[in-house]
C-alpha cells in the first residue's frame, strides 16, 4: 500500500509510464529480441498497442528502420542521393504524424524526443527547430550519444557551437560534444588542447574517444606523423578496435611508405568484422596501395592485377564511396574500375560525382574531364551502332562537346 500511495502522488505521466512498464515488460523483451536480429516489422507488430515509453520508442524506431531498409533495397545503384532522389523512407510521414500528436498531449522523454527529431530531419533536413529538438533531447537524457551526434550535424560554424553550448548542461558529456564538433570544424591543435581541461585529463586519461579525436584533429591539419603515432597507441591498447580505423587507413595510404602496415590493418579489421563500413574503407585503401606497388612490378604482374583485381576491388569501392561520398579519390578510382569492367554509363556517373567533391585536386579534375569527354563520345558511337533513339545519341554528343570545351578553356588559361 505504501508503494501504491507513492505512485499515486507522482505526476500522471510518470505514474502511467511506471505502470505500463511493469505490465508490458514481456512484450518489450519479445520486441527487443526481434529488433536485435533485425526483424523490424515483427518488432513493430508485437508492440503495436503498447503504451510505455520504452515500448513506444522501440516500436517507432523499429518501423523507422524497416522503412530505411526498404529504402536501401529500392536503390538500384550506390551513386548516392544525387542519382536516385526518389528513394524515400515511406514510413516517415505516418510516424511523424503520430509523434506530433504525442508532443501536443504530453512531455516526451529524451529518447522519444530524439526519435521525433530524426523524423523531422527526414522530412526537412533544414527545419529551423531541429537544433532545439536535439538540445531538448540531450537535456532530458544526456547519455544518448546518438542525440549529441545529430545535434552536432546541425552546427556548421564555431559561433553556432558557442551559442548552443550556453544552453547545454555543464557536464563531461557537453565537454566531449564540444571537442567532437570542434574537431569536425577543423579545429587547430591549440583549440583542442584548450578544450581538454584538467578534469578531463584526470578522469579520462586513457579515454579512447579523446585519443581518436586528437588523432583526427592532427589528420585534419595534415600532421599525419603525429596522427599515426596516436593511432598506433590506440591499436596497441585496443587491438580489435574498428571505430575510426577508416581514418587511420587513409593516413597510412597518404603516407605511401606504410603499405605493409595498411595491409596488416586490413587483415585485422576483416578478422574482427568484415562487414563493418570502416572495414570496407580500409580494404579499399589497401587495394589502392597494392595497385601502387604493382605498378613498380613486372609487366606480367600488372596484367594479372588488371584481369583479376577490378572485380574484387569494385565491391569494396562501391561501399567505400557510399561511406565517404565527399572523397574525390574514391569516386575517381571507382570510375576507373567501372571502365575496366566495361560499365561506361556507371563510370560517367562516378567521374561526375568526383567533380562535385571539394577536395579534388587540379590534376584529378582534368583527368575526370578528359575521361568524361571520351566516355560520352564513345557512348554516342555505341548507341548509334545499337540503333537507339536519336535523343540519346544527341544528348551524349552534347555532353562530350561540353567536356571537350572545358578542356580547351583550361588550355587557354
From TrEMBL:
<dbReference type="InterPro" id="IPR011990">
    <property type="entry name" value="TPR-like_helical_dom_sf"/>
</dbReference>
<keyword id="KW-0131">Cell cycle</keyword>
<keyword id="KW-0677">Repeat</keyword>
<dbReference type="GO" id="GO:0051301">
    <property type="term" value="P:cell division"/>
</dbReference>
<dbReference type="Pfam" id="PF04049">
    <property type="entry name" value="ANAPC8"/>
</dbReference>
<keyword id="KW-0802">TPR repeat</keyword>
<dbReference type="GO" id="GO:0016567">
    <property type="term" value="P:protein ubiquitination"/>
</dbReference>
<dbReference type="Pfam" id="PF13181">
    <property type="entry name" value="TPR_8"/>
</dbReference>
<keyword id="KW-0132">Cell division</keyword>
<keyword id="KW-0498">Mitosis</keyword>
<feature type="domain" description="Cdc23">
    <location>
        <begin position="11"/>
        <end position="215"/>
    </location>
</feature>
<keyword id="KW-0833">Ubl conjugation pathway</keyword>
<dbReference type="GO" id="GO:0045842">
    <property type="term" value="P:positive regulation of mitotic metaphase/anaphase transition"/>
</dbReference>
<dbReference type="GO" id="GO:0005680">
    <property type="term" value="C:anaphase-promoting complex"/>
</dbReference>
<dbReference type="GO" id="GO:0031145">
    <property type="term" value="P:anaphase-promoting complex-dependent catabolic process"/>
</dbReference>
<dbReference type="InterPro" id="IPR007192">
    <property type="entry name" value="APC8"/>
</dbReference>
<dbReference type="InterPro" id="IPR019734">
    <property type="entry name" value="TPR_rpt"/>
</dbReference>
<protein>
    <submittedName>
        <fullName>13542_t:CDS:1</fullName>
    </submittedName>
</protein>
Amino acid at each position: 500500500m505504501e508503494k501504491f500511495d507513492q505512485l499515486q502522488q507522482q505526476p500522471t505521466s510518470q505514474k502511467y509510464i511506471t505502470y505500463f512498464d511493469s505490465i508490458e515488460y514481456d512484450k518489450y523483451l519479445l520486441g527487443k529480441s526481434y529488433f536485435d536480429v533485425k526483424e523490424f516489422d515483427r518488432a513493430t507488430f508485437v508492440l503495436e498497442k503498447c503504451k510505455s515509453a520504452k515500448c513506444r520508442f522501440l516500436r517507432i524506431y523499429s518501423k523507422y528502420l524497416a522503412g530505411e531498409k526498404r529504402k536501401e533495397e529500392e536503390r538500384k545503384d550506390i551513386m548516392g542521393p544525387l542519382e536516385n532522389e526518389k528513394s524515400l523512407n515511406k514510413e516517415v510521414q505516418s510516424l511523424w504524424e503520430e509523434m506530433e500528436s504525442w508532443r501536443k498531449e504530453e512531455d516526451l522523454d529524451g529518447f522519444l524526443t530524439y526519435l521525433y527529431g530524426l523524423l523531422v530531419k527526414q522530412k526537412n533536413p533544414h527545419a529551423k527547430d531541429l537544433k532545439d529538438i536535439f538540445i531538448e533531447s540531450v537535456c532530458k537524457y544526456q547519455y544518448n550519444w546518438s542525440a549529441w551526434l545529430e545535434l552536432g550535424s546541425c552546427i556548421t560554424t564555431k559561433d553556432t557551437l558557442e551559442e548552443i553550448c550556453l544552453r547545454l548542461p555543464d557536464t563531461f558529456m557537453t565537454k566531449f560534444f564540444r571537442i567532437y564538433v570542434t574537431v569536425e570544424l577543423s579545429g587547430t591543435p591549440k583549440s583542442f588542447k584548450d578544450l581538454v581541461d584538467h578534469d578531463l585529463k584526470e578522469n579520462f586519461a586513457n579515454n579512447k574517444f579523446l585519443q581518436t579525436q586528437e588523432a583526427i584533429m592532427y589528420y585534419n591539419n595534415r600532421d599525419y606523423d603525429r596522427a599515426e603515432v596516436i593511432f598506433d597507441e590506440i591499436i596497441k591498447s585496443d587491438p580489435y578496435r574498428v571505430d575510426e580505423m577508416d581514418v587511420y587507413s587513409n593516413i597510412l595510404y597518404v603516407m605511401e611508405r606504410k603499405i605493409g602496415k595498411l595491409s596488416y590493418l586490413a587483415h585485422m579489421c576483416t578478422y574482427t568484422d568484415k562487414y563493418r563500413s570502416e572495414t570496407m574503407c580500409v580494404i579499399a585503401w589497401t587495394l589502392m596501395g597494392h595497385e601502387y606497388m604493382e605498378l613498380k612490378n613486372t609487366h606480367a604482374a600488372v596484367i594479372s592485377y588488371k584481369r583479376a583485381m577490378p572485380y574484387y576491388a569494385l565491391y569494396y569501392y562501391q561501399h567505400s564511396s557510399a561511406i565517404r561520398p565527399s572523397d574525390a579519390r574514391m569516386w575517381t578510382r571507382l570510375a576507373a574500375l567501372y571502365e575496366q569492367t566495361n560499365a561506361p554509363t556507371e563510370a560517367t556517373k562516378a567521374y561526375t560525382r568526383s567533380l562535385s567533391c571539394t577536395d579534388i585536386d587540379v590534376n584529378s579534375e582534368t583527368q575526370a574531364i578528359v575521361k568524361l569527354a571520351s566516355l560520352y563520345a564513345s557512348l554516342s558511337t555505341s548507341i548509334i551502332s545499337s540503333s537507339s533513339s536519336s535523343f540519346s545519341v544527341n544528348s551524349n554528343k552534347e555532353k562530350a562537346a561540353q567536356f571537350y570545351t572545358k578542356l580547351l578553356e583550361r588550355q587557354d588559361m
